[in-house]
Amino acid sequence: MGSSHYAQYGNTMLQRMYCENCRSWTLVIESKKQCCGNICTEESKFTKVIVPPQGNRIRLSRKVREMIKKEQDYKCYYCENVFGYYYSRGWKVYKSTIHFDHIVPFYLSCNNKKDNIVATCNLCNSIKGPKTFKNIEDLREYIQSVKQRKDILVMR
Questions:
Q1: First to last CA, the chain
Q2: Which of 23, 49, 95, 121 is most open to solvent, judged by the fewest CB atoms within 10 Å of its CB?
Q3: What is the pLDDT of residues 10-28, one digit of tens each?
Q4: In the chain, where does the domain assigned CATH 1.10.30 lie?
Q5: How many CA atoms lie within 13 A of 62 on its CB side?
């Protein structure tokens, strides 16, 4: 089974995967690999930006940022830890910081409205990166698996 994701070219998204037979990346159109015509049954769970669309971000006002944090009870939207928690990786200990992230990524929607932005911890936001997921459960599962794989421990 190859690695599969949705590739974004500007505002167009196409399924893309690594074909083990052809040893190259290929697009998947109507469940067929374009390199060799073999059927693809693998479902993509995230998006990778190949060419970003054009658009401008704006910084949220302090009032809106505070409102978002308060609505989330000062917890990360992804891992649900209270902001300012400590975590370790290897022998180093870090304190989490607050980041603001677009639910539907800005590069897909160009939407800076409050209802599209959540407060996250820096760790979850950096793990998520520019990927998109079908639902919050898939995203949380992905973040947890990366934390486990990289031996990141949250200190409670």
A1: 38
A2: 23
A3: 667 788 888 888 888 888 8
A4: 62-155
A5: 0
